[in-house]
Specification:
about 140 residues, mainly alpha, 3-stranded antiparallel beta sheet, 5 helices, DUF3806 domain-containing protein
Length: about 140
């Protein structure tokens, strides 16, 4: 089952790049600039009068797959299934859950602090890089 689910994630990533890339004004791919563009895309969707935050499972699947693939590309991590669902295992051993974050932004928006771009930056530049670990020398 995991292989089929991973293939579905990869298909979602391809779909996101194929469909969103031409709409964007950035060099769209598995990079931070594209994550920032997708964050704006989510916010623009949320503003539409026909937006239903309960009917977003397909969008969560595609955009969560894309966000996770961006994390994998930036950190060298990998997809892993946990009891909480699919996440990205980061080099420091922690797991980031891109599907959960996309759903939260779709439901609550950046004005409530749910930003996939911030999630990406913290995961890549701080957690995966080991910069959030306590400095052992600080206790001396």
């Amino acid at each position: 089952m995991d292989d089929q689910e991973l293939q579905a994630i990869e298909a979602n990533v391809r779909l996101a790049v194929e469909q969103l890339g031409p709409l964007s004004d950035v060099d769209f791919g598995l990079n931070e600039e594209s994550v920032e563009w997708v964050e704006g895309f989510i916010e623009r969707r949320r503003c539409r009068p026909d937006f239903d935050p309960e009917g977003v499972d397909g969008l969560v699947g595609v955009l969560g797959s894309f966000l996770g693939a961006c994390l994998v590309a930036a950190t060298g991590g990998g997809w892993r299934r946990t009891g909480d669902g699919w996440g990205v295992l980061l080099p420091d051993g922690s797991t980031a859950f891109p599907f959960v974050k996309v759903r939260k932004q779709l439901r609550d928006g950046v004005e409530s602090g749910e930003s996939i771009a911030s999630f990406y930056r913290v995961a890549v530049h701080f957690i995966a890089a080991g910069r959030l670990r306590e400095n052992p020398a600080a206790g001396d």
